[in-house]
Amino acid sequence: MSGVIVTDPPKAELKDVDALARFGVATVSEARGRTGLLGPGIRPIQQGERVVGTAVTVLSWPGDNLMIHAAVEQCGEGDILVVTTTSPCTDGLFGELFATALKQRGVRGVILNTGIRDTQELRDMGFPAWSRAVSAQGTVKATGGSVNVPVAIDGQVIRPGDVILADDDGVVIVPRERARETVERSEAREAKEAATRAAFLGGQLGLDRYGLRQTLERLGVEYKTYEEYAGEGA
After folding, report:
1. Which of 37, 54, 71, 136 is exposed most, by the fewest CB atoms within 10 A?
2. Residue 132: is its pLDDT beyond 60?
């Protein structure tokens, strides 16, 4: 497998990237029309962490972490490393030594469509990680791949420089050109949710706030007393 290492991909503006850190993954995905989410198989190895940064992408051969070594050189302040393989792989491609090198370069976390190991050490050093699996299985360094090329995970295309936001709920991708727009839409969604929260605290029901009584009626859902329901032989 031949490959390429792209050294200077465009990136989202860091001020817009950092502005997205105020919002959760669910809010940003909803603000983008319920798009951009990686699947639920990509899970955090820690709890209570939220990271946002620009993607440095890696396409590796299964069971081989050579291209992660190559990618470290391309990583810098504010980046998040995103790793996938040419076919499914749950081997532990990434561990504490990689995290040490990346943290020194200002990298904020890692997203792996593969396995990860040294999870306790990663938690102890405060390096956030999301992965497909946890596995102590080691790897080789023998096959070429690519760095900073578009990759696909769970049907989502991730380009170098796109925004990655990850928290306890999962991972969402924001195209680099849409970062500022997504900040504005997320702000509007949070304002709407704040108004709804206040209404719920005041006792209003979602049935009324969202006009769902009419939806139930349109769908033919009926209200019955227990006697009426029981009298029908339910």
Report:
1. 136
2. yes
